[in-house]
């Protein structure tokens, strides 16, 4: 059971760590005596915004998709617990002939 939760939360963990780690490292760099160069700013922007944010959004979307699939599966299993009772063919034929005058 625990491995199931680890599989669900691993993409979120990676994305959040990527974003937070980049932001914290950037904050540390900004507090240094020299301001960061434009190249360093571009690297942090690429790591955080172009990789971290889409990864976070994809992880959240994937979890929502899995949740929707679980809900659909439970709904379908709820319907399958009570098998559909179809009318027996001979009863239907008698009803049809009684009400419509023939087969």
From TrEMBL:
Sorted UniProt keywords: Membrane, Transmembrane, Transmembrane helix
Transmembrane segments annotated in the record for this chain: 42-65
Protein name as it appears in the record: Uncharacterized protein
Taxonomic lineage from the root: Bacteria, Pseudomonadati, Acidobacteriota, Terriglobia, Terriglobales
């Amino acid at each position: 059971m625990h491995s199931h939760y680890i599989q669900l939360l691993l993409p979120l963990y990676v994305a959040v760590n990527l974003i937070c780690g980049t932001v914290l490292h950037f904050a540390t760099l900004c507090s240094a005596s020299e301001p960061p160069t434009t190249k360093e700013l571009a690297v942090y922007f690429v790591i955080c915004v172009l990789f971290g944010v889409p990864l976070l959004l994809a992880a959240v979307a994937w979890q929502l998709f899995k949740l929707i699939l679980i809900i659909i599966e439970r709904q379908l299993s709820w319907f399958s617990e009570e098998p559909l009772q179809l009318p027996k063919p001979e009863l239907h034929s008698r009803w049809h002939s009684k009400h419509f005058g023939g087969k």
